[in-house]
Amino acid sequence: MTITFYDYSMAPSPRRARIILAEKNIAHESVEIDMMKADQLSESYRAINPNCTIPALQLDNGTVLNDNASIAVYLDEVYPEPQLMGRTPLEKAEIASWNHQAESELGAAIPNALRNTNPHMKDRALPGPVNYKQIPDLAERGLTQIDVFMAKLEAHLEGREFIAAGQLSVADITTVCFLDFCKVVGKKVTDDFPNIKRWRAALAERPGFKL
Ligand SMILES: N[C@@H](CCC(=O)N[C@@H](CS)C(=O)NCC(=O)O)C(=O)O
């Protein structure tokens, strides 16, 4: 049995795991779960990942890891080169902190901005098996949060090649995936953010980030 990666090429969350698989050069098969056809809510995918979210990773022993948090931890332990979550306690702490900030401040802001007004996402304000009503005010707050995060990241990247611990890490991967996806809500990295542009351009040279 091989490792099977449940992916959706258009979405930012599976891209995070896709880049980790590429950076570590891990052999796997990919299965596309087409969100445009609501495949993530199908009975067959629900049996794999009851959270109805993408990504999921089925290991060669059949175990399914059903979110980025578990996939990143598992892959970094079992395929330690390159180490993407830090080696020393302080490196691990710094990377975890920035990964969390990227998820909770940027990653959460984009779906809030996207899903709370879009008529195609009526009652789908949050991913997952439960339907939630839209709250339009959250869309406005999400757009503001994106601006605030970009300003914080710009200041943080002054004089830094990577976001945390002086090395490529999941913090860079998470942040790139969500920053690139900001275009869906009309936000992009402008010339006002030279440090973010420099950091993003350097990462673009890595094959995994072209995926
Ligand atoms: N905590 C999850 C969140 C994943 C997530 O929200 N994925 C989105 C795609 S970017 C999804 O599956 N959405 C399903 C939906 O909108 O119904 C993780 O990062 O693994």
Briefly, what is this?
This protein has 211 residues and is α+β, with helices and mostly antiparallel strands.
Please, how many domains? 2
Strand content: 5-15%
Q: What's the rounded overall pLDDT mean?
A: 97
Report how far the terminal alpha carbons are from each other. 24 Å
Q: Mind telling me the C-alpha Rg? A: 17 Å
Key structural traits:
4-stranded mixed sheet; 4 strands; Glutathione S-transferase Yfyf (Class Pi), Chain A, domain 2; single chain; 211 residues; binds glutathione; alpha+beta
Task: Explain what you see.
The chain is α+β, with helices and mostly antiparallel strands and 211 residues long. The protein folds into two domains: 4-78, Glutaredoxin; 89-210, Glutathione S-transferase Yfyf (Class Pi), Chain A, domain 2 (Up-down Bundle). Helices cover 47% and strands 6% of the residues. It contains eight helices and four strands. A four-stranded mixed β-sheet has the order 2-1-3-4. Helix 4 packs parallel to helix 7 and helix 5 (109-115) runs antiparallel to helix 6. The chain starts with a strand and ends in a 7-residue tail after the last helix. The model has no long low-confidence stretch (mean pLDDT 97). Glutathione binds at residues 11-13, 35, 40, 53-55, 67-68, 127.
